[in-house]
Every structure is written in C-alpha cells, then in structure tokens.
Design a protein that fits this description.
With 246 residues, the protein is an alpha/beta fold. Helix content is 39%, strand content 20%. α2 runs parallel beside α9 (210-228). The two termini are 33 Å apart.
C-alpha cells in the first residue's frame, strides 16, 4: 500500500462503513468462542490497527510488514505488536486460537498465497480458526487496487481450493457486500472508459457525508445478520471465509 494511504486509513477507519461492517462480522465470530477472555488472537496484517483495537479485551497480538502501519497501530496502545510478514510469522507452532487475516493475501508482496496460508495454519492450535477476508473478481480491478498494491482478486471457488490445500476445513465461505455490488460494477466500467491514461492512482478511501456513510453501514450490518443466519451470497465485492485447522 502507498505510504500516504495509511494516514487516510487511520483517520477514517473507526467510523467508515466498510471497516465498521467488516469488524462487526469478524467480531461476531470471535465473540462466539465461549466469550473467553483468554483467547489467543493474532491480527495477521493489522494495517493501522482498527481491528486490533476493537479486540483489545482479548489482548491480541498483531503483525504487519509496514513501518507506517505499525506506528499507527502502536498509537492505539496495542502492546503485542511486531513488524513481520505473514509469510514468516514470528511465533511458535500452535500459538493461537484464532488468526484474523483481513485483505492481506491479495497483496503484491505475497508471492505464494497457499504457502502463506500454511504458515498461518502452523501457528494455529488444534482446531484453531482462521477468519479470512479478500477482494473478489479480477474484473473489478481498478485504480484503487493499484493504490493499495493488489496482486490478485479472488473467486470463492479459488479461495476454497487454496484454504483447503493449506490444511484447513471450510466452515463458512460467502461473498459479501452484495447490495452495493451493482454500483461498483457500473463505477468500474465508467472508470475504464473515462479515466484516460492518468498515471496518478489513489484509493477510494475518502471521507463521505454522515448520511451516506450511515446508509452504507446499515446495509453491511444487515448483510452480516443474513450471513450469520446461514445465508450464502453468490456474488459480492469481497469474500469472507471461516476455516478450521484440521
């Protein structure tokens, strides 16, 4: 990710609809593990620390390869944090009950996503859980992806194959952000036709009006309820996967 994008992320992620919806979905799965305060959780690719901050009651561990990301996360008083790659996690075998990986495996610095998933598998204890989130569909690749250094966008079938190849058993896999999917597709089409040959790229992370942010947030929270009730979406902007170590 471009360095300047971390500052933007840090400034808006606490209230921004995309992050609020994703954190709520992830938290609903961590909170369901017997409400144990002693759960060992690793935020693998923590970014600027928004997820780790919401999990502070569990005293989570966090890693990220970016110095900028680490600096912002430390400012949230996350103690157990280290600069490291998810390709080589600096913790012993079977150290964690849950590993959270939110929009990390798609990055250009991940040369082999299956091997990275195997590394995550290594640090999970017996029947440990992976909560995985990734962007969907390469045809949606845009200037936003260039700005955040996206290597690849996935399909659910592809994620399932890779997660299982790494030694996991799928408990849940679904697309999400389905209701805003048509808007995104139209936007990508218009972008391809009218963006010209500009070299400047920036992410779509920008402040928006309270009303728009509120509506988008409520849409994602409604989707989360449907996902938690057992519904699987056939398409969407992202893929959410819950997998257990065999």
């Amino acid at each position: 990710m471009k360095k300047e994008e971390y500052k933007i992320m840090f400034d808006i992620e606490d209230d921004y609809w995309w992050y609020v919806g994703l954190r709520q979905l992830v938290f609903s799965y961590t909170a369901g593990k017997g409400d144990r305060a002693d759960l060992k959780i690793l935020d693998a690719g923590c970014g600027t620390g928004g997820m780790s901050a919401k999990l502070k009651a569990y005293k989570p561990y966090a890693i990220d390869y970016s110095e900028e990301a680490i600096s912002f996360t430390r400012s949230r008083e996350i103690v157990n944090i280290a600069r490291a790659s998810v390709c080589c996690i600096p913790f012993k075998k079977s150290a964690f009950d849950i590993v959270i990986s939110l929009d990390v495996l798609y990055h250009i610095n991940i040369s082999d996503d299956v091997e990275t998933l195997k590394e995550i598998n290594r640090v999970l204890n017996k029947e440990g859980v992976l909560l995985l989130h990734l962007p969907a569909y390469n045809f949606l690749y845009s200037k936003h992806d260039e700005a955040v250094h996206t290597r690849h966008r996935y399909t659910a079938k592809e994620v399932k194959q890779k997660v299982e190849a790494a030694g996991f058993e799928i408990e849940k896999i679904t697309y999400r952000n389905i209701f805003l999917f048509p808007i995104a597709v139209i936007r990508r089409i218009l972008e391809k036709f009218f963006s010209g040959s500009e070299e400047h790229t920036e992410s779509e992370l920008k402040s928006m009006s309270f009303f728009t942010n509120y509506i988008f947030t409520r849409i994602l929270l409604f989707e989360n309820k449907l996902i938690r009730s057992g519904i699987y979406f056939p398409f969407g902007l992202s893929i959410f996967c819950v997998a257990r170590k065999k």
